[in-house]
Design goal:
alpha+beta, globular, 8-stranded antiparallel β-sheet
């Protein structure tokens, strides 16, 4: 039986572990959290941090694995690429994945290769911030260069907010660096979704309209309201980035902003599938099975996935609490209950939940399907009242 090493066993990684089992693979999971729920679905678990690439390599060599996958995990992606490169397994180069995983390196790459790039500054300490403050225009985005799931990402509208955002963002950076970048204004929603790359070419991509509460994502809806011609141009630009980056195979998670003038800014192209069940959104909306494809690619198998011909109206809604407290349950209004095709809940009664500010505070995710765009837009306007987290005050 062929063996796959899955980096991480968080709740949102369970579908990938289960899919690998369905495909007849022997699944080994590893991370530094033995109580992560995904480990109960694997055949074997090893306590190794997924960011320690040398330790992961040593263990992978010992277990004689046939494939490795960092599913929906930015921090783990470089280690997976490092191992696949060293053991000549299916995967992308460590150099390309490392670059795509680091926001500062990614911006430098875009600038060098002629992509539309926000103006940006990389900052390591308060002294550097003070020296650059007079050059920064507002609003701006402040981000750790190596975090994921919107952790430590803030919008600053003035100098005082910039300093507050710096203090918060730097605390989320493992390498102690942040990036302050130009806010790209757009008349559209930000585009967001997943793609699948095979043999260095973009085989599949679907991007929808990302929705935010302040600067925190609360969901993505497909299809996008953006015109088909503009979406085609965006797909072509993402394809060009894939080719330029040297990323060879696997899932990618993409965020794009298009200006009024039609300039296409690729805000992010993460070298892994999207978190918060984006692959499940992709399958519900397009009928194409991204999850199976990325597991097959990791094992060096041909993946049967193609560009979708049509898209069903679907919404990925990230369920977060609007206040902190003890989790008591979910209120789901009957007007939307029958439209939910998948519901993932991460909390149990009595567990503490924080006010939703980033992916670490997600209570659950609902994948919701609709008959048409009009119905979807109408329900999205009231989705926060239709699906609510019930908490008991401390």
């Amino acid at each position: 039986m062929k063996k796959i090493l899955m980096l991480g066993g968080a709740r949102s990684q369970i579908p990938a572990i289960q899919k690998a089992k369905e495909l007849g693979l022997y699944v080994i999971t590893c991370d530094y959290l033995p109580d992560n729920p995904g480990h109960q679905f694997s055949d074997e678990y090893q306590n190794i941090s997924t960011v320690e690439k040398e330790q992961v390599l040593e263990y992978a060599r010992f277990k004689q694995i046939d494939g490795i996958l960092a599913y929906a995990s930015d921090p783990s992606a470089p280690a997976a690429a490092y191992v696949s490169e060293k053991l000549a397994l299916s995967g992308s180069s460590y150099q390309s994945v490392h670059m795509l995983s680091r926001k500062d390196l990614f911006r430098e790459f875009q600038k060098k290769h002629g992509f539309w790039t926000p103006s940006f500054f990389c900052i390591r300490n308060v002294e550097e911030l003070k020296k650059l403050e007079h050059k920064i225009t507002y609003p701006c985005m402040v981000k750790p260069v190596d975090s994921s799931g919107s952790k430590g990402v803030y919008q600053a509208d003035c100098c005082e907010q910039l300093r507050e955002a710096y203090d918060r963002a730097i605390s989320f950076s493992r390498c102690g660096r942040i990036i302050v970048e130009e806010y790209i204004d757009t008349p559209y929603h930000q585009l967001h979704g997943d793609g699948v790359v095979s043999d260095g070419k973009l085989q599949f991509i679907a991007l929808g309209d990302q929705r935010f509460l302040h600067s925190v994502p609360i969901g993505t809806s497909l299809p996008s309201e953006m015109s088909g011609d503009m979406r085609k141009k965006v797909y072509e630009e993402v394809s060009r980035l894939v080719l330029s980056s040297g990323f060879q195979c696997g899932g990618i998670n993409v965020e794009v902003r298009v200006t009024q003038a039609g300039d296409i800014y690729i805000i992010e192209m993460g070298p892994r599938c999207g978190g918060n069940y984006v692959p499940q959104l992709m399958e519900a909306a397009t009928g194409e099975d991204e999850l199976t494809a990325v597991v097959q690619i990791a094992m060096g198998m041909p993946a049967k996935i193609r560009q979708p011909k049509q898209i069903t109206c679907c919404l990925q809604y990230i369920i977060g609490s609007r206040k902190s407290g003890r989790y008591s349950g979910l209120y789901i209004d009957r007007s939307i209950r029958n439209k939910i095709v998948k519901l993932y809940v991460h909390k149990k009664a009595g567990e503490w939940v924080e006010t939703y500010q980033d992916s670490s505070q997600v209570v659950g995710v609902a994948i919701i399907c609709f008959q048409n765009m009009q119905e979807m837009e109408a329900d999205m306007k009231k989705v926060e009242s239709s699906i609510q987290v019930i908490v008991e005050d401390a």
